[in-house]
Design brief:
12% of the residues lie in helices and 46% in strands. The C terminus is likely disordered. It has a 10-stranded antiparallel sheet with strand order 4-3-2-1-5-9-8-7-6-10.
Length: 179
């Protein structure tokens, strides 16, 4: 029997309903980003835990559309996808409902991030990232895979600017205090 090689990748997944931790099996030589950008409507996770629960579920089919972020436990599980042109690093902020992810993305040299972002369809790796909503405080992450359909805006920060974009609750507080 010829069995295809399967990578077992441990990850945390931010969904529209909260965080999930589990193992994703990636077949063949596909990288994690390529696999996540596939056509399947569900991600099949094993050995799954939910916050606040002590039991481990043997299997969960997680709807891809519900996934906002994927945090692989090992950053080496994320490899560049078909980089046949010279690439450059760019700072970016990704504004999402209830959170802002800041970090670095790779785009073809001499290409603006805004132009490249128009071609992003599914998951994009953001390196050396900070998720302003994770655990109530900023946490530095080696890499986070952001599900583009949940991104409300891509922002290229002005040179040297490090402030974060206010989240929806913060904007609401500012509006209430101004009135």
């Amino acid at each position: 029997m010829n069995r295809e090689h399967v990578q077992q990748l441990s990850l945390r997944v931010a969904t529209t309903a909260g965080w999930v931790h589990g193992t994703l099996r990636v077949p063949g030589k596909a990288g994690l980003v390529e696999f996540l950008n596939g056509e399947d409507a569900f991600l099949r996770l094993t050995d799954v835990t939910f916050p606040g629960r002590t039991d481990v579920l043997p299997f969960v089919a997680l709807r891809r559309d519900a996934v906002r972020l994927v945090l692989p436990e090992n950053a080496t599980d994320v490899t560049p996808v078909n980089e046949t042109v010279e690439m450059a690093w760019h700072e970016i902020w990704l504004w999402m409902a209830g959170r802002t992810v800041r970090g670095r993305v790779r785009v073809p040299r001499h290409t603006r991030v805004s132009d490249q972002a128009m071609h992003w369809k599914s998951f994009v790796p953001v390196w050396n990232a900070v998720d302003d909503e994770m655990s109530g405080a900023s946490s530095r992450l080696a890499v986070v895979l952001v599900h583009v359909p949940h991104v409300l805006a891509f922002v290229e920060p002005p040179e040297g600017r490090v402030e974060r974009i206010p989240t929806s609750p913060e904007r609401a507080r500012v509006r209430r205090s101004a009135s």
